[in-house]
Amino acid sequence: MSAKDLRGRTAFVGAATFGCGEAPGYTAIELAAEAGRRAVDDAGLKLSDIDGLFICLPNDFLSGLTIAEYFGIHPKMTNNSRTGGSAFLTHAEWAMLALDAGLIDYALICYGSNQRTGAGKLVSAQAPSPFEFPYRPNNPVASYALAASRHMHQYGTTSEQLASVAVAARQWANLNPEAFKQGSLSVEDVLATRLVADPLHVADCCLVTDGAAAVVLTRADRAKDARKTPVSLLGAASATWHTEIAQLADLTITAARESGERAFAQAGLTPKDIDVVELYDAFTINTILFLEDLGFCPKGEGGRFVSSGAIGPGGSLPVNTNGGGLSFCHPGMYGLFTLVEAIRQLRGEAGERQIAGAKLALAHGNGGTLSSQATCILGVPETV
Amino acid sequence: MMAEVQPDIEYQAHLAEGHFMIQRGIASGVHHFYPRAIEPGTGRALEWVEASGKGKVHSVTVISRKPPLEPYNVVLVDLAEGPRMMSRVDGIDPAAIRIGMAVTARIVEEDERQFVVFVPAEEA
């Protein structure tokens, strides 16, 4: 058996979000449980159908146990492996394997965080490194700023080009009633916000919000009976190259190059085939790096590509159609929201921001400081 | 068998004695930072060698803070021996730090702990 044999063997049959933006009074587990219930409802299933449970919560290292107990179910497989914000796309990869092997029948992947109303800032589970903390990098932003500086140095990328990523995200958010940040935003507006870590301004950084998301994945045979049209998982792959930014050999090339190559190979597709792209945009540099590394534009061309208007509404490659982590929501580990939006686009459920006729979508998660990368390629039934 | 090196403790002890030591693969001859119990990539044994202290700024960011607190810099430095490390450059306006700038290591002490910073090479 090869990785290609997994193409289309599983499909997403449920997807939900809950509490995006501000959800005062809710704990992280409450938010995750509510999103999970909604995704199960969306799939036309019962909680008791779920026998594979995948989760990360901001600060509960045994969250798989917590959520199983909370749901009152006895899953055959419980997984709360953490790779940062990419974890949920890696969960999809593992769920795909377990479903295909017949170990489980229905996998629920869920996440919730109350970091905005609970803590007021990013809640990180990462231990400080003894080889970083004396220098007080205000991570994660400092590490991403170091990558951005390097990209500017090597390829002439500009602050204006970085800002255009935030502008496109806001234009999409203005079409998404669930988005936390709405209103007009220009390149000049972004550049007028406070510098946090040069070259990144406040508006180059993701939001700090609450929010929860969940998806249900099952085998293709069972997916046929789902309430809604299933969205097939055509390729899923992950890659990890480092944890501290100093250990990334070339600060302008991430492991997304590797996860993307393997996901595309599994799906038998190329970037040209993709109709809609959902990337983990923790910072504006992310979108540029991942568009390059995933093959949507040549290395070094990302700045010019994003500032051409290509990724915004009406552009040639719709990117982060929900408004992304920059303007939709970012509860700390955003990865699962890329999958939910890809599913909504392929189901035709995206309202004003719907990409007409979208058949193939790419969702990409990032974790740590550009450290772990995970790519999923999804398609409507006729693409299998 | 006990590990032949206790990298964290030994690294700090060297710094406390005024020596910036990095590791080299005994078989590979490749230098590494940060200190590890085994050589990354091969798992083989490492030895300590004194770093030349010469390096170049690979990337730089200036962290802004609310006034009256001053901004400060965080850099990545490529050591002449090959490895890259996070650090800061002292003795210069943070806004004047450039990628490619030659720098020299200094050992400083803050909060009773020694660590390596850099200064512009021409001032060393």
From TrEMBL, chain A:
Record InterPro entries: Thiolase (IPR002155), Thiolase-like (IPR016039), Thiolase_C_2 (IPR055140)
SUPFAM superfamilies attached to this UniProt entry: Thiolase-like
Any one Pfam family match given in the protein's UniProt record, by short name: Thiolase_C_1
Domain Thiolase C-terminal positions: 237-379
Entry protein name: Thiolase
Originating organism: Novosphingobium cyanobacteriorum
Organism taxonomic ancestry: Bacteria, Pseudomonadati, Pseudomonadota, Alphaproteobacteria, Sphingomonadales
